[in-house]
């Protein structure tokens, strides 16, 4: 950026900035450990050379050096540096978990503009997610072949999974392209995998829909974990190719339309229950369902409803007194 502005001032380029959009990345930070010397100095110990004890919330309660099993002091969480000896060689993690896992953790651990706290437990969590995804794809691929998805023939449960798929496509595409929010994109894919694992439908259309979801997930994850996605694409029965040459998935607006919605019901501003109604339910139907909800009815008993506010798709607030 400095050189670009220098060239601009010299009249050699005619724009103020070298790029149309600037993203300033955060730093990578990690825990620090040390031993105090007699003269007040500190000998810093690398995190890979320390065994830590944690409480039920994951907070460090103690640490000992792996070499001599003697205690070490726990320092602050600081940016990785040679002076604090808290740098972690990514090659160690890559050798243990694979490059895709390390990439996935780096994208998921924090928004790119914020500091990323290196956490080996987090890397292991990403490894578990990828193994779970692999098992789901492999299990599906081992089942009988399936027809194409027929949207008009889908059951309500199948339509709900397809809606979740296209909601995820829209979110991931927006997070990658506009928001540069990679952590929320990955979180959305984790939620979609949970939905797939809960989807217990072995019918022809159920298997076809599961195939569509898993194949789309491979394309959505490919920018972050290209190696495993390259392999899974073939596990799903596709020919070997460069996935970057395949068009990125696009959401179907019709598939994203909800048939039913869940509304929170408040009484005098306090949550007392939830109701599920058709997305296009009339106001009178929503009001009746809200007042008939068992727990809500307890708080309405003997009270006069003074006002009833319906915020479509979100909440019902009943004022009594």
Automatic annotation (TrEMBL):
One of its GO terms (biological process) is leucyl-tRNA aminoacylation. Pfam families: Anticodon_1, tRNA-synt_1. GO terms for molecular function: ATP binding; leucine-tRNA ligase activity. GO terms for cellular component: cytosol. The keyword Secreted does not apply. Residues 159-282 form the Methionyl/Valyl/Leucyl/Isoleucyl-tRNA synthetase anticodon-binding domain. Residues 78-117 form the Aminoacyl-tRNA synthetase class Ia domain. Its EC number is 6.1.1.4. It catalyses: tRNA(Leu) + L-leucine + ATP = L-leucyl-tRNA(Leu) + AMP + diphosphate. The keyword Aminoacyl-tRNA synthetase applies. PANTHER family: LEUCINE--TRNA LIGASE, MITOCHONDRIAL, LEUCYL-TRNA SYNTHETASE. This is leucine--tRNA ligase. It comes from mine drainage metagenome. The lineage of its organism: unclassified sequences, metagenomes, ecological metagenomes.
């Amino acid at each position: 950026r400095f050189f670009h502005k220098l060239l601009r001032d010299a009249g050699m380029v005619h724009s103020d900035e070298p790029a149309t959009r600037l993203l300033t990345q955060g730093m990578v930070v990690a825990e620090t450990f040390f031993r105090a010397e007699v003269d007040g100095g500190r000998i810093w110990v690398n995190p890979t050379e320390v065994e830590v004890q944690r409480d039920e919330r994951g907070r460090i309660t103690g640490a000992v050096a792996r070499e001599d099993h003697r205690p070490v002091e726990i320092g602050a969480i600081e940016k990785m540096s040679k002076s604090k000896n808290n740098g972690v060689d990514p090659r160690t993690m890559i050798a243990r978990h694979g490059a895709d896992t390390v990439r996935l953790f780096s994208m998921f651990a924090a928004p790119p503009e914020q500091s990323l706290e290196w956490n080996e437990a987090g890397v292991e969590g990403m490894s578990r997610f990828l193994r779970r995804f692999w098992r789901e794809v492999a299990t599906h691929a081992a089942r009988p072949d399936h027809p194409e998805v027929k949207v008009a023939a889908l059951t309500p449960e199948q339509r709900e999974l397809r809606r979740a798929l296209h909601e995820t496509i829209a979110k991931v595409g927006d997070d990658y392209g506009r928001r540069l929010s990679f952590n929320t994109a990955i979180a959305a894919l984790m939620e979609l995998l949970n939905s797939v694992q809960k989807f217990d439908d072995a019918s022809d259309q159920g298997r076809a829909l599961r195939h569509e979801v898993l194949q789309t997930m491979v394309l959505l994850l490919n920018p972050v974990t290209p190696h495993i996605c390259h392999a899974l694409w073939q596990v799903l029965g596709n020919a070997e190719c460069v996935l970057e040459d395949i068009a990125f998935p696009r959401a179907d607006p019709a598939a994203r339309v909800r048939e039913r919605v869940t509304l929170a019901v408040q009484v005098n501003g306090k949550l007392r229950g939830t109701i599920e109604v058709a997305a296009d339910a009339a106001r009178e139907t929503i009001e009746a369902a809200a007042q008939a909800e068992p727990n809500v009815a307890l708080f309405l008993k003997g009270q006069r409803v003074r006002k009833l506010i319906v915020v479509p798709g979100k909440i019902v607030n009943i004022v009594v007194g």
